[in-house]
């Protein structure tokens, strides 16, 4: 980090896919002091070139090399190719190493990765004229290394959603209920471990339920903004994809929308899916037992 420059401020949303992080990010991104980057950990797969996975595009539905915002971010970094080589994706070694704390930290890889991630956050914030970036990547390993590196001014929230609705969403996209249950459970455990470490270090990590967000959007969003030290703004009640990376494609196509409970019919889950939910979902018990320094 260049001497004398402030660390870029980032709100990192912890959690699991299909838990509402896309709509939460799109809502917060409407605040004049915030820019919603979306799932920035997947950015290289959106950049035209060797790492690109078609037909991925910006929240504005343009390819990144045609989007005025991301072209501006790339210009600040030096080139469009720099977006695909910006350190947003963890190497496998860094991904699993945080779960083996007895091993030494990757001293050579971590500074390079952290500097690249910092440059990206700063370029994105400056291009938007914002004070703070929202990163809905959700993964605990990325959050851990950002925190350990100390080069970003991080604030966290933990977004949760009942496993039954997560499984229902994943089934609609052709994914296995059992695999979803396993990966969801592991993700909850990983995030819980990280949150305990953060709270022991004196950080507050609010637990945000997607169900409550859709029932009481004004209350929940005002709590998050207060957590960030930002004033209320009515615009956050009308989410918009803008230039977000990743997330639910249907949400991007709908454009401007409102936060409210889904009106979609909820047919009964197949037997195997119901068994997976019963086996893996103990979120409610964990959440009630949670608290600063306690197991979540």
Write the layout of secondary structure elements.
Blueprint: E1 9-14, H1 21-28, E2 34-38, H2 68-77, H3 81-84, H4 92-97, H5 109-128, E3 132-138, H6 140-149, E4 153-160, H7 163-172, H8 177-200, E5 207-209, H9 210-215, H10 217-228, H11 249-254, H12 271-280, H13 283-289
Parallel strand pairs: 1-3, 1-4, 2-3, 4-5
Helix pairs in contact: 2-5, 6-8, 7-8, 7-12, 8-12
Provide a descriptive summary of the structure in words:
- By secondary structure, this protein is of the alpha/beta class.
- It has one domain.
- The chain has 13 helices and five strands.
- The protein has helices spanning 21-28, 68-77, 81-84, 92-97, 109-128, 140-149, 163-172, 177-200, 210-215, 217-228, 249-254, 271-280, 283-289; strands at 9-14, 34-38, 132-138, 153-160, 207-209.
- A five-stranded parallel β-sheet has the order 2-3-1-4-5, with helices on both faces.
Short description:
This protein is α/β, with parallel strands linked by helices and 296 residues long. It has helices at residues 21-28, 68-77, 81-84, 92-97, 109-128, 140-149, 163-172, 177-200, 210-215, 217-228, 249-254, 271-280, 283-289, and strands spanning 9-14, 34-38, 132-138, 153-160, 207-209.
